[in-house]
Amino acid sequence: MHAFAVDGLPEIDAGDDLAALVAERADLTDGDVVCVASTVVSKAEGRTAALAEFTPGPRAEEIAARLADVTGEQKDPRFAQAVIEEATEVIMDAPFLLTETTCGHVGVNAGIDRSNTGGAELLLLPKRPAESAARIQAGLAADVGVVVTDTSGRPFRHGQRGVALGWAGLPAARDWRGETDRDGHELAVTVEAVVDELAATANLVSGEGDDGTPVVVVREFEFGDHDGSEQLFRAVDGDFVRQALRDWTFDGA
Question: Where do the domains of the chain lie, and which CATH numbers do they carry?
C-alpha cells in the first residue's frame, strides 16, 4: 500500500466539481481510495459564512462569557452561536466547546474552521459528508472508494490526527469478531476503524498549514476477507464518556 498527494489542485470555489478536478490530475485505478479533506468539500459546497450572519442568543452570550472567564481571552458570542447552530448537541461548554455534529462526529467547535478558508471568516463542515463522498465517487471513472476527512484531537493524547467524516465505496470498519488470533482465541470485540486509519494515512501525506494538497490517493489497500461494518460513531446510550461529561462541571481548577 502506498499513498500520494494529488498535486496542482487550484483554490476551490463554490460550485467547483471536485471529482473532475481530481480526475484531471490523478490517473486513478480500480481499488484506489481517494481521501478528500473536508475543507475543500466545504468550499465546493459553499459552506462558508461570516460572523455577522449569526446573531447570538442568550446561550451563546453565556457560553462566550464563561469561556472568557475560564481562558482569560475574550470570546466572540457570534462564534459561539455559529457552533450552537452547527451542532446537534453541545456536550461540554468549558474549557472549550465539545459538540456533536449532524453526521455524528464529536469534536471541538462543531468542526468550524478559521484557517485555510479561502478568504471567508468561517468554514463550516459539509452538511452530509457521506453524501458528499458518494457524489465525488460517482464523478470518478474508476471504481474507487472515497473518504471525506478532517483532523481532530484525541482524548487522553496530545495532537491531532486524521479522521473520517463520510465515506463511500468501502465499509467503515473491518469486523474481526468471530475470527481467531494466532493462538486460536476467538476475537469478541475487535472492530477496526478502517476509514479513520485511511484518513490518518492521508493526513501524513497532505500535511497541515499551507501545504495545499487536500486530496490523497491510497493505492493497493486491501480490505481482505473480513466482514464489513458501517458503525463508526458510537451510539449515545453506549458512550459512557459522553454520559459522564454531561454530569461534569468545569470549575477552572
Answer: 1-46+128-233 (3.30.1330.100), 48-125 (3.90.1660.10)
pLDDT reading at 211 higher than 80: no
Numbered residues of the known binding site: 9-12, 38-39, 43, 113, 116, 150-151, 206-213
pLDDT of residue 252: 60
Which residues fall in the annotated binding site for GTP?
9-12, 38-39, 43, 116, 206-213
Q: Does residue 167 register a pLDDT over 70?
A: yes
| 3-class SS string, the chain | CEEEECCCCCCCCCCCCHHHHHHHHCCCCCCCEEEEEHHHHHHHCCCEECHHHCCCCHHHHHHHHHHHHHHCCCCCHHHHHHHHHHEEEEEECCCCCEEEECCCCEEEHHHCECCCCCCCCEECCCCCHHHHHHHHHHCCCCCCEEEEEEEEEECCEEEEEEEEEEEECCCCEEECCCCECCCCCECCCCEECHHHHHHHHHHHHHCCCCCCCCEEEEECCCCCCCEEECCCCCCHHHCHHHHHHHCCCCCCC
Can you give the pLDDT at residue 102?
Answer: 87
What's residue 251's pLDDT?
A: 67
Contact at 8 Å (CB) between 191 and 202? Answer: no
Where do we find the cell 463542515?
125
Across 22-36, 62-76, 207-221, the highest mean pLDDT is recorded for 22-36
Known binding-site positions for a divalent metal cation: 113, 150-151, 208
Give tens-digit pLDDT for 8-49: 999 999 999 999 999 999 999 999 999 999 999 999 999 999
